[in-house]
Automatic annotation (TrEMBL), chain A:
Residue ranges of the TM segments: 16-38, 58-85, 97-119, 139-157, 197-223, 243-263
Location in the cell: Cell membrane
One GO CC term on file: plasma membrane
InterPro entries membership: CysW_permease, MetI-like, MetI-like_sf, Sulph_transpt2
Predominant cellular place of this UniProt entry's protein: membrane
Protein role: Part of the ABC transporter complex CysAWTP (TC 3.A.1.6.1) involved in sulfate/thiosulfate import. Probably responsible for the translocation of the substrate across the membrane.
Name the record gives this protein: Sulfate transport system permease protein CysW
Stretches assigned to the ABC transmembrane type-1 domain: 61-268
Lineage: Bacteria, Pseudomonadati, Pseudomonadota, Alphaproteobacteria, Rhodobacterales
Subunit structure: The complex is composed of two ATP-binding proteins (CysA), two transmembrane proteins (CysT and CysW) and a solute-binding protein (CysP).
SUPFAM superfamilies: MetI-like
Biological source species: Paracoccus haematequi
Stored Pfam families: BPD_transp_1
From TrEMBL, chain B:
Places the protein is found: Cell membrane
Domain ABC transmembrane type-1: 67-270
Membrane topology value: Multi-pass membrane protein
Name of the protein: Sulfate transport system permease protein CysT
UniProt KW keywords: Membrane, Sulfate transport, Transmembrane, Transmembrane helix, Transport
Organism: Paracoccus haematequi
Pfam families, per the entry: BPD_transp_1
Length: 272, 284
């Protein structure tokens, strides 16, 4: 163990600091991570499988997959559209629009959920209107999808926009003068240039969509076997004192998180 | 935030490329329905309450207790993360040792892990018969269902902020001043305090500010470990949700607006610090 760039005589100090950093990280990060799998499989694989295949947990996995499947294409489309709009055109209010697109990153998800209830709830702004039209947004799939879109909205644009700005629009303008249509320009010029950033943003947004708890918990209404996403199901099992079941459900999300980390590392190498 | 950094002055290319109408339409529809409408609902509800009633809600004993708990626990969590983050950034940048890259990757776990999963694992570990609780409880440090538990959950979910803001600045640091200080006979501790720390201070402050803001807004991890006892271990955002469930929309809106106001102040503070940080880095 040696200090880089600085051949200092404080080898002991370096060792002490490295040891402290490793020990703290072990206790704070590594042990909790390992503990999830340890508890999930503490009853053996059969018990684990039984917990995962319990109807309510299975339904939660299904609902979470549906939410992710709906939000991903919308996030991609909106991410590309807003990045294109802001990188390629000037118009009054452009900076303000960018601030609003980024706004969900500065509002905590639980507050986002409260906002949705204040809008669509029974005594909310649009509540009476929805009740009259018998439109169900809250405590149902639309509300869960919309609040997930709120929380995950900025991810794709945040990755794609800086890249589009850095690359400039010379290639696209050249394609335009050569007679390419808008769709052809996007598919042949823009998309190949931004594909890794796009994928990176999509991975981050989807990981967040799958794991979101606070925002979804407010709008879902927590109806057993109906509006419980996987993170909410973990809380339900925990409150039911089915701790091993909760850890089994949690282990699937942890596995997804680890896969996302690996993907992230790979994609970061590509986008830089 | 990085996105605001550079808007190119694109004078003549204005609307040469196709897609202005389409992308503008899509973006405005999305922003309007998903982001603006709900946020406007919050402000309209808040405006409806009136200042006197708003003040009464926010200064009610239960609200004050919740706000105090949230702020204190977030401060405890941030104090820990400031020290731990600084240590991790220093060790990861300055030393080479086996397992360094793995240790670096571990810093991303708290972001990647869903907060409910983190809350579940921490609660089980710190509960009286858990691995950590078994040691801490007999020592007179109960964590679960106390403010310490809230702080533990908050600090876990905001671990990466200080590390990841300080790390790049520490990497780019010019070594000539350090070398000069060393030749002049300064001790390593003196070099750190007088040369290195002042250089990384803005980044360090940005990181701690964001960590504090994130801790204030943390919900998922906290509610598992807190026990959520009114007046004792109930965080402010949970109280807002409880008010909603009681159909007390005014109460919920007032508490939510207070939290948004605090978050906005912290955001402005961190942007201001960030602006100072970039100005300082330009001549280097």
């Amino acid at each position: 163990m040696s200090a880089v760039l600085a051949p200092r005589p404080d080898q002991g100090g370096a060792r002490l600091l490295i040891g402290l950093a490793v020990a703290l990280t072990l206790f704070i990060v590594v042990v909790p991570l390992a503990y999830i799998f340890w508890r999930a499989f503490s009853g053996g694989f059969a018990v684990f499988a039984q917990n995962i295949l319990a109807p309510d947990t299975l339904h939660a996995i299904w609902l979470t997959s549906v939410v992710a499947a709906i939000t991903l294409p919308i996030n991609l489309a909106i991410g590309i559209a807003s990045a294109w709009l802001i990188a390629r055109f000037t118009f009054p209010g452009r900076k303000a629009l960018l601030t609003i697109i980024e706004l969900p990153f500065s509002i905590s998800p639980i507050i986002a959920g409260v906002c949705y209830l204040l809008l669509y709830g029974r005594q909310g702004l649009l509540g009476p209107l929805l009740a009259a039209g018998e439109v169900k947004i809250l405590f149902a799939l639309p509300g869960i999808v919309m609040v997930t879109l709120f929380v995950t909205g900025p991810f794709v644009a945040r990755e794609v926009l800086p890249l589009m700005q850095a690359q400039g629009s010379e290639q696209e303008q050249a394609a335009l003068t050569l007679g390419a249509s808008g769709w052809q320009i996007f598919r042949r010029v823009t998309l190949p240039n931004i594909r890794w950033a796009l994928l990176y943003g999509a991975v981050l947004a989807t990981a967040r969509a799958v794991g979101e708890f606070g925002a979804v918990s407010v709008v879902s209404g927590a109806i057993r076997g109906q509006t419980m996403t996987l993170p909410l199901q973990i809380e339900l099992l925990f409150n039911d004192l089915n701790i091993v079941g909760a850890f089994a459900a949690a282990s699937t999300l942890t596995l997804i998180a680890l896969v996302v980390l690996v993907l992230k590392t790979v994609l970061e190498g590509r986008t830089r | 935030m990085s996105m605001t950094a550079a808007l190119p002055a694109s004078g003549r290319q204005r609307r040469v490329l196709p897609g202005f109408g389409l992308t503008m339409g899509l973006t405005l529809t999305y922003v309007g329905i998903i982001v603006l409408l709900p946020v406007i609902a919050l402000f309209l509800k808040g405006a409806e309450i009136g200042p006197a009633r708003f003040w009464a809600i926010v200064t009610a004993p239960r609200t004050l207790a919740a706000l105090r708990l949230t702020m204190t626990a977030a401060a405890l969590a941030t104090a820990f993360n400031a020290l731990y983050g600084l240590l991790m950034a220093w060790v990861l940048v300055r030393y080479r040792f086996p397992g360094r890259r793995l240790l670096d990757a571990m810093m991303d776990i708290p972001f990647a892990l869903p907060t409910a999963v983190a809350g579940l694992a921490l609660t089980a570990l710190f509960s009286e018969n858990g691995w950590y609780g078994q040691v801490l409880a007999p020592a007179g440090i109960p964590v679960v269902y106390t403010i310490w538990g809230v702080a533990v959950a908050m600090s876990f979910t905001s671990i990466p902020f200080v590390v990841r803001t300080v790390q790049p600045i520490l990497e780019d640091l010019d070594h000539s001043q350090e070398e000069a200080a060393r030749t002049l006979g300064a001790t390593p501790l003196q070099i750190f305090a007088r040369v290195i720390f002042p250089a990384i201070l803005p980044a360090f402050l940005v990181g701690t500010t964001i960590a504090f803001a994130r801790s204030l807004g943390e919900f998922g991890a906290v509610i598992f470990i807190a026990g959520n006892l009114p007046m004792k271990t109930e965080i402010a955002s949970l109280l807002a949700v409880i008010r909603l469930e009681e159909y007390d929309y005014n109460g919920a809106a007032a508490i939510a607006l207070t939290l948004v106001a605090i978050a906005m102040v912290l955001l402005v503070l961190s942007n201001w610090l960030q602006a100072r940080l970039t100005r300082r880095r330009v001549p280097a």
